[in-house]
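Consider the following input, taken from an annotated entry for Golgin subfamily A member 6-like protein 22 (Danaus plexippus plexippus).
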Amino acid sequence: MRTLAITVGDALLCFTFAVALAVPIKENSEVSRDKRSPGWHSEPEGVWEKKLVWKEDWKQIWKTEKKLIWKSEWKKEKVPAWKTEKVQQWKEEQVPAWKVVQKPIWKEVQVPIWKEVQVPDWKKVSKPVWKEIQVPVTKTIQVPEWKKNFVPEWVKEGVPGEKYLGKDEHGWEYTSHDLWRKKLVWKPVWKKIWKPVQKQEWVTDKKLEWKDEWKQIWRTEKKQAWVTEKKQEWVEEKVQVWKTVKKEIWVPVQKKIWVEKWKQIQVPVWKTIEVPAWKKVWKPVWQKVWVPIHHEHHEHHEHHGWDK
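Applying the prediction step yields:
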């Protein structure tokens, strides 16, 4: 950034000088301009001018970069170690001793027992028997019966006397004698019908009865008897045994411990360094260029700066 600022400052300074000097340079008339006769053909007239151009250039700069390096450091860590220690333990040993024990022996003895025996016996049992009997039942039967009904019937009946019937269109009267008429009467009729009647009858049925009988059975009874058995008895006897006793001893034991130790390790760190680099810059340069002058046909209208 410092290099870039200087370069821009130089450019501005050069640009100021270029503006101040970007005017035609008036040189000696004998060098820059020669008046010739019209019929003389020579090189075109012109003037030398200074022109500011920018020229490409490469400038070395220093660029900041980070580089990974390894730095040695000391680190405290715990490492395992073995330490011999004596610890107290109990060791079992076998020593002889005398012990009184109970020893079982078998002895034959007579013991009473109850034995089951089968003895005959008579038992009264009831046996089912089916017996035929007469039982009354009620049965529904149909019996004939006469029923009196009345049915309607039309009969012919005479009407005594004279009956006036009316007049005709000429005024004659009409009468009737001994007329007949229909009369509805109810006539009795006897009709045969069937009537249900409950009638008692006797039917044969089976009835279950129980009959007593005597049956021989075998009854279990208990009878006392004597049998020989072995009875266990305990007698005292001295026997030699081995008795376990505990004895205190000290045994070495490896115990794991942790001790502190310094260890050199390599840790990565970032280091800021300056490395060279090339930067492209533009430098102002003044160049001398030849600018030709073009004349017009009407020379009496020309006005040059150097003629005033």
